[in-house]
Write a structure and sequence with these properties.
heterodimer; A: 2 domains; B: about 250 residues; Rossmann fold; four-stranded antiparallel β-sheet
């Protein structure tokens, strides 16, 4: 009772092959999304991670603003408390409290963080100022401590402010215009459509998050699909069906790519939530013409994020095919994650408008386009080269996975 | 239906000489017979079956299954075989019905054909109760019935059973044994590998004793008894591989 295999024309054979590939794909996708861990890493996590991060940043920023408003700063000085200049400075900023310190206790006081910075006022300060001389003021602070640095800057700016008043008095005494000592007065004016400091931070951080989302969603699925099947012995039952090894590996690859793309797309959706939900916790993003995400930027993000997902799917599948079991696949994953994280992190340091050669570096190229998109300045030629390069690398990874799938020494080791 | 001619399979081993897992076996299996492959673990039974099922490519020699060459017509061979092994598991997150439907479709069966065959098999194997339950929720015996249904859905003329009862309790093993007999009665060619003597005695029409990759003896059980002069099958086996009978 022989079974019929159907007509053997090239078209019929190809159609059967595509049909089997799609059957494998459908089955894999169905099984993948029935897994709770995968649902969490592919759907829940990418949707929530960016909104949560933005909300957290908003909360931190509002806390910092509140702290700065109510900020009381304790600084010190060495010298006479009866100095008229010191009294003027104390009056100019009531939030800064001045403590009189003995000269031999400067080092100890700062080191113990009792007082953040101390100004050493020379005994001759009043008379030197009156005699139109320059007074040398030493400000002691801990260069390795942020708050000590900012306290030192605060003292410096208070004395500079007082200094401008002294200059004005000196000029007036000599019947000269105050403008004589001010040939230039700077007025930095950010353009209203430009970015903000928050935007700079976000455009550095977000590409990293989006790249990690694209790969992390596919990790479990890829491991389960080949290494897991080897371990459980189900791959053998699949290999004895008429589906060719190429049909099987391509079906599985498409399934992993679908998972990586879903994870990527949802991470972009997660990115849109803070901008379009109008929740109060995200007000800081758009306040004062801050960050905006135009449809062009969103499309650009998708355009580079998808080839990146395809590349990750190929790499993950090759890894899973090579591994004997899921545990071994997890072990190989460590170095791969570093290979993904390092270029993603590099995007924080590399300028968004870097040369075209950067568009050839896998992962970094995509994260740089994301960075460009977030700052509203996508370079089309950079983007096209980046997409083509990612697709080329994805092709190489997939070819490698397919060739591994043909090797019985790799496929049947468990 | 199965012709094997001087087939060899070697595996490369790191820093050592290649291992000849199957070393020049020649045999023939006919439709309507259960052909037993008897041998200890590591004898080469699984490697031989894997070559006949086109999972592994022979290093040399040739074999044809259901009239198709295992190397040049591998896809046709796979279309005509069923494969059941005791070590394979099922897709845990698919139901029994989804599993069988998936394999039926991979064999190119039309949807209505898969459904009607599946219903018939499920009724025959008494699977209705758990047909829509996920495989990870099934007992070992129920899983084995799903595996049988998966292996037979395309009505293959040749069936390979590689230690199909390993790890099964007596009830589940009984279902498998019954199924193997049924395959023979339906006129299929059945290759059955085992190291359990009682199963060989109960099932096999002819047996091949495989040891260290080579064929030590071949024939019906009676023929082998006559050749060795032993009545107990374990002694027949020991004598065939050149060891002293107990």
């Amino acid at each position: 009772m022989p079974n019929e295999t159907g007509p053997n024309t090239p078209i019929a054979t190809a159609a059967r092959s595509v049909n089997r590939l799609l059957l494998v794909y459908q089955k894999e996708v169905r099984e993948i999304f029935r897994d709770r861990r995968t649902r969490f890493s592919v759907i829940i996590s990418p949707l929530l991670i960016t909104p949560l991060l933005f909300a957290l940043m908003g909360k931190m920023i509002s806390n910092q603003v509140a702290d700065a408003k109510a900020g009381q700063l304790q600084v010190g000085y060495v010298g006479s408390p009866s100095s008229a200049l010191l009294t003027n400075i104390q009056k100019s900023d009531p939030n800064v409290h001045w403590a009189n310190i003995k000269e031999d206790e400067i080092e100890k006081t700062i080191k113990e963080h009792k007082i953040k910075a101390i100004a050493l006022l020379p005994e001759t300060m009043e008379s030197d100022v009156a005699a139109d001389k320059t007074v040398i003021l030493k400000i002691f602070f801990d260069a390795g401590n942020d708050s000590s640095n900012s306290a030192s800057n605060r003292i410096e700016s208070l004395f500079e402010q007082q200094g401008r008043q002294v200059v004005a008095e000196r000029l007036a005494k000599n019947s000269l215009s105050p403008e004589l000592a001010t040939p230039f007065k700077m007025q930095p004016t950010p353009i209203s459509s430009g970015g903000t400091a928050a935007l700079m931070i976000l455009s550095s951080l977000l590409p990293y998050i989006l790249a990690i989302s694209a790969i992390s969603g596919g990790i479990y699925a890829a491991n389960d699909l080949v290494a897991g099947e080897k371990e459980r012995g189900t791959l053998e039952t699949l290999l004895v069906t008429p589906a060719s090894r190429k049909d099987i590996v391509l079906g599985k690859y498409l399934a992993v790519a679908t998972v990586c793309m879903t994870s990527s797309l949802l991470s972009v959706v997660g990115l849109l939530i803070p901008f379009y939900s109008r929740l109060p916790v995200y007000n800081w993003l758009t306040r004062g013409g801050g960050l905006s995400l135009s449809p062009v930027s969103v499309l650009s993000i998708l355009f580079v994020q998808l080839p990146l997902a395809v590349l990750f799917a190929g790499a993950l599948l090759a890894l899973s095919t090579y591994a004997r079991n899921q545990k071994e696949a997890q072990t190989y994953l460590g170095p791969v994650m570093i290979l993904v994280m390092v270029p993603s992190m590099m995007s924080m340091m590399v300028k968004a408008d870097s040369g075209l050669s950067f568009a050839l570096i896998p992962v970094l190229n995509a994260t740089l386009v994301l960075k460009q998109a977030l700052s509203g300045a996508v370079n089309p030629s950079f983007m096209i080269v980046a997409v083509l390069a990612s697709m080329l690398y994805a092709g190489i990874a997939l070819t490698f996975a397919v060739s591994l799938f043909q090797k019985e020494s790799v496929l049947l080791k468990a | 239906m199965i012709l094997v001619e001087n087939i060899v399979k070697t595996f490369d081993v790191k820093n050592a000489a290649p291992v000849r897992a199957v070393d020049g076996i020649t045999l023939e299996c006919k439709p309507g017979e259960i052909f037993g492959l008897l041998g200890p673990n590591g004898a080469g039974k699984t490697t031989l079956i894997r070559m006949l099922a086109t999972i592994l490519a022979p290093t040399s020699g040739s074999a044809s299954v259901a009239g198709f060459d295992v190397v040049n017509q591998a896809q046709d061979v796979r279309q005509n075989i069923g494969y059941l092994t005791g070590s394979a598991s099922l897709y845990e997150r698919l139901t029994a019905r989804e599993t069988v439907r998936y394999f039926g479709s991979l064999y190119g069966l039309q949807a209505n054909e898969v459904e009607s065959r599946m219903n018939a098999i499920f009724a025959q194997l008494d699977m209705a109760e758990f047909a829509d339950r996920r495989c990870d929720k099934l007992s070992t015996g129920q899983k084995q019935r799903v595996s049988i249904a998966r292996a037979i859905i395309h009505k293959p003329p040749v069936m390979f059973f590689d230690e199909p009862t390993s790890g099964l309790d007596i009830m589940a093993a009984r279902t498998v044994v019954k199924f193997i007999k049924q395959c023979r009665d339906e006129g299929r060619t059945v290759v059955f590998s085992t190291h359990i003597m009682s199963e060989v005695e109960a099932l096999c029409d002819r047996i091949a004793i495989v040891y260290k990759g080579k064929l030590s003896a071949i024939g019906t059980i009676d023929e082998l008894r006559e050749q060795t002069g032993e009545s107990r099958l374990d002694n027949v086996f020991l004598k065939s591989i050149g060891m002293e009978a107990e």
